[in-house]
Amino acid sequence: MLINILETAFNLIITLNDDLFEIINLSLKVTLSALIIAVSISIPFGAFLVFYKNKFQSFIVLIANTLMGMPPVVLGLLIYTLVSKKGIFGFLDILYTPTAMILAQTLLITPIVISLTYEEIYKKNKEYDLLLNSLNLNNFSKLKTLIYECRYALLTVALTGFGRASAEVGAVMIVGGNINHFTRVMTTAIAFETSRGSIELAVALGLILLLISLLITLLIKSLRKIS
Amino acid sequence: MNIFPLKINNLNYSVNENTILKDIHLTCEKNNLTIIAGNNGSGKSTLLKILHGLIKVPINTVRWGDYSTSNIKINQSMVFQTPILLNRTTYDNLAYVTKKKNITEKFYVEKIIEKLNIKIISDINAKYLSGGERQKVAIAMSIIGSPKVIFMDEPTSQLDPAYKNEIENIIVDLSNNGVKIFLTSHDISQIRRIGKEIIFLDKGKLIYHDCIEKFFKDKHCDLVNNYINYG
Q: Which CATH superfamily is domain B31-38+72-230 in?
């Protein structure tokens, strides 16, 4: 039975099945959009925190570290209450759209990217602090140098965020609604197709997710080697 | 801009109620290579960092001519005991410092590379260099912009005799060319070889400040005698 399922799943992938690729396409669009937004906000913010030395710095880092472990369904629920018709952002009318899914994934990975960026830049700053101060650089110049020096580590951070977002199911299910041809992404499709007994498509999507995960792991490994 | 003599007036520095430097008063002239000596924990590195402005102290305790340390930072550089190099090639490390010091002269980096004789390692990433090579690159970075003062924190302590000799020659050459060098060292034979003036610290206190010849002729307390005999 398993061999039959795998055979059908591989056929779906090899024959470029329309439904399958529509789902993959939307998944990548949502996750990459979320990643770009999260990284654009979180990397400068995480780096800035290293130089923002007062009582709020450790508090913000603590909050970011805490939110790293936030269950996606709880986040999904929170966003749902905010963007549903009766919520304070209900007027935006984004519930059950890819926009809401991007928002959910962005909020999910932002604390991860902030926290890991802070750690990387903090470590690098300790290493280079004397040199950069000796050169009499201002904080902005130091920040630019440190971000450049951490470039491979920060790419790894971004890939970690991508991995987390692409594997997430709870939040996008709640705010996206898993609407066919509109908000169905790989993870929600796997859950849905399995529940209705269409295991082949679910396996095919699972294999693609595994492949993406493998690629991310290999990329992270080689980036670590370079850095 | 005349930044000499260096005058240190009643310098005290503590961290968490631990006294690192106490009651330091001294005057240093330009034309010599000043060794800062003393046992571990005597405050040598802290004094260097204060003179370079890496540790802030009240403005009037350290005066360079008529200037405070922050006013003359552009005329100073520092070489650390463990060289701090960016994760780039030797050339790119030098180019980085050149850019940060706003030097626009063409082929400036090439000139520095030639001066320190490091062409052979110019395209190698700093992380693949040996300790001696890293220290040479750090010194090359420190001379960018022709600073009037260079602080060197035990620059040869981790090097083999061949590199030690090479680095000492570079230091003496810089000193002979009018760069004021402040160098911390534990190595008594090195102090004898290259030093012109010595500041000796013990537990944060200045206990001796004079020229090297006199230091080796004078009678000292047991602490300094031990240092001279076993350093």
A: P-loop containing nucleotide triphosphate hydrolases (3.40.50.300)
